[in-house]
Amino acid sequence: MKKNILIIVALSTFEITSIFGTVIFSENFDGSSYSDNQTISNGTSVNSAYGKTVYASGGSGSTVISTANELSGTRSLQESSDVSGSNTAQTSFDFGTGPGVLANTTSAIDVNFAFNLTSLSNGVGVLVRDSSGNNAGYVTLGGSTGNVRVVNNGSFSNLYTLSATTWYYLDLQLSSAASGGTTYTVSILDSTNSTILATTTGVFGNTATTGIYQYLTIYDMNSGGSSNVYNYFDNITVQTIPEPAVFACLILGICFVGRYRRPDMMA
User: Fold this and answer.
1) pTM of the model
2) Which of 97, 113, 117, 224 holds its CA 20 to 30 A away from the CA of 240?
3) Residues 241 and 110: beta-carbon distance below 8 Å
């Protein structure tokens, strides 16, 4: 019986790490790395609570750690555009650097974050980039049609029609960067991150040419208008996805436990 327990505990631990993979970036902007209503100046970076880098760029657009609109905790990331029409706000999350953490990854990854758009007319671009900054995946939120749009083999297709000032989650899964990183699954979920509102699969036209994922970039696509457009982001997580072979080993292990325990159960 003791052997059974040890085997079950070992496999249970293996199961947890296998199903969820390794978290390589996580940020909700509530940690001590930030302060209320802090502005991250363009061209500068802040070490996130997870030990990775949050970098603001995009000219005269602004990136603020806001207390005005958050899904959980007390803060979120606010991007606002430049009304002069020259620049937009852009924030990059580097999950390839930082003290005591994993480097960039070749594994398949899952990118998940909450977003709230105060205006749908301009929208937000979401990029997953490789270690040289090349785009490997591209999704737009909002925009001229108010839809979530996904690039499939170089052409945009509509996935879901959003409502303004409403929290949603975007979940983006990309296949291994080492194999090109072109196959994706994109899902839109409700504010609880549990109910899938729409999902699609396809192939991005671009690939991770270096074979390594390193950056998530979120940028405000408003290049001008009569007023600033504010968009909010929260609860960002990037984690690896185990290879199918890992799940096959897990299933074999569970079957082994069942066979190993059967004589004791019949005794």
Assistant:
1) 0.81
2) 117
3) yes
Separation CA 181–CA 48 (nearest Å):
26
User: How far is it, in rounded angstroms, from Cα 71 to Cα 234?
Assistant: 7
Instruction: Give the pLDDT confidence score for residue 221 in this predicted structure.
Output: 77
Query: Which whole-number Å values give the CA distances from 42 to 26, 88, 125, in the listed order?
Result: 22, 11, 18
Beta carbons of 186 and 200 less than 8 angstroms apart: yes
- Pair of tokens at residue 21: 């993979």
Considering only CA atoms, which of 238, 237, 235 is closest in space to residue 191? Answer: 235
Q: Average pLDDT for residues 178-204, to the nearest whole number?
A: 90
Nearest 5 degrees, angle CA 8-CA 12-CA 17? 155
pLDDT in tens, 99-137: 444 456 888 999 999 999 988 877 899 999 888 888 888
The answer to whether residues 172 and 139 touch, using CB atoms and an 8 Å cutoff, is yes
